[in-house]
């Protein structure tokens, strides 16, 4: 399997009169669901799909709760998740409160296994 990309044309906003350039744009192809992961794990082990789904649901629920509690969640050599965000500026430290936080996002850092898999990934042009 390979990673699919399309070709997109983009102008440089800093040089509006310059000719546009063409870039590879990686696109998602298909999807893998939690049920798919459980089915695969069940096929390669002696544990049933239902048992695997129960464990995965419990694990991901705990991951979500821990990230919401401000913890950095290390999932082995697979990935790390944590909360990040941005806030409004203030003139003094005393003016910074929880209300200063404008947005919250999830920071995903791939681990060694995912980084290594992407190093050897193949690409193909869509269409």
Automatic annotation (TrEMBL):
Gene3D superfamilies tied to this protein? IHF-like DNA-binding proteins
Q: Does the keyword DNA-binding apply?
A: yes
Name the InterPro entries for this protein. Answer: HU-HIG, IHF-like_DNA-bd_dom_sf
Could you tell me the keywords of this UniProt record?
DNA-binding, Oxidoreductase
The HU domain covers which part of the protein? 1-125
Output one GO MF annotation: DNA binding
A Pfam family reported for this protein in Swiss-Prot or TrEMBL:
HU-HIG
Write down the SUPFAM superfamilies for this protein, in alphabetical order: IHF-like DNA-binding proteins (SSF47729)
Protein name as catalogued: DNA-binding protein
């Amino acid at each position: 399997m390979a990673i699919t990309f399309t070709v997109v044309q983009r102008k440089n906003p800093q040089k509006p009169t310059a000719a546009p350039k063409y870039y590879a744009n990686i696109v998602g192809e298909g999807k893998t669901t939690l049920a798919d992961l459980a089915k695969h794990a069940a096929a390669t082990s002696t544990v049933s799909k239902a048992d695997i789904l129960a464990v995965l649901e419990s694990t991901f629920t705990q991951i979500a709760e821990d990230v919401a509690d401000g913890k950095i969640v290390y999932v082995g050599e697979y990935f790390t998740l944590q909360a990040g965000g941005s806030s409004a500026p203030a003139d003094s430290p005393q003016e910074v409160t929880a209300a200063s936080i404008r947005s919250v996002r999830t920071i995903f850092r791939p681990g060694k296994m995912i980084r290594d898999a992407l190093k050897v990934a193949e690409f193909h042009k869509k269409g």
